[in-house]
Specification:
23 strands, mainly beta, 42% strand
């Protein structure tokens, strides 16, 4: 129908007893997994791909006022791989590759976009993600990780081959406002 939808929703305050394990999550037009209302599910060992929600910018996992544990997933070929808004997700041991932000919002993050949130990113690999085009100016885009008014911690992650502007400019981490703590990076390409 062309309308956006969500394949899996956690919206009733689910705890870590709610586990999504071993699925392939695809919507094409929509968001793969949505976590809201203080939900804290465990999302692990899934393939999250081909989800292009929110005007091309969202896609894989969208966490709003939630604290999910996202671990051991392959997150690829989405709009943004993971959006974290007003929460503190734990994102660990994922392969986050070839996600491309875009759409009318004018850029974003290919890998993880943290908006007023403090996610913990541990032992993830970010490769080949693109933050889209900065239509409005101001540098509001990143290939791997974009921070807007947040304070995430990035520990033992590999950030390599991530770009903005359709692959023309290398970009790993952009802090628009807020801060990021980088600890013991095992591999980070300079930008």
């Amino acid at each position: 129908t062309g309308e956006e939808g969500t394949a899996v929703t956690f919206a009733s305050g689910e705890t870590t007893a709610a586990v999504l394990d071993g699925f392939t999550i695809t919507t094409n037009i929509g968001t793969g997994i949505r976590c809201t209302n203080a939900s804290s599910p465990i999302i692990r060992h899934n393939i999250i791909r081909n989800n292009y929600g929110m005007m091309g910018g969202g896609g894989g996992v969208y966490s709003y006022s939630a604290t999910p544990v996202i671990e051991g997933n392959l997150i690829r070929n989405n709009g943004t791989g993971i959006w974290c808004v007003y929460g503190s997700a734990v994102i660990r041991n994922n392969l986050i590759v070839r996600n491309t932000a875009g759409g009318m919002e004018g850029g974003g993050a290919g890998g993880v976009y943290g908006y007023s949130s403090s996610p913990q990113l541990v032992s993830n690999t970010f490769y080949g993600n693109d933050g889209g085009y900065d239509w409005w100016g101001g540098g509001f885009q990143a290939g791997a990780i974009l921070v807007y008014n947040g304070a995430p911690t990035v520990r033992d992650c590999i950030l390599w081959g991530n770009t903005v502007n359709g692959g023309s400019t290398p970009s790993q981490v952009t802090v628009y406002s807020g801060s990021v703590t980088m600890v013991q990076q095992s591999g980070a390409e300079s930008t």
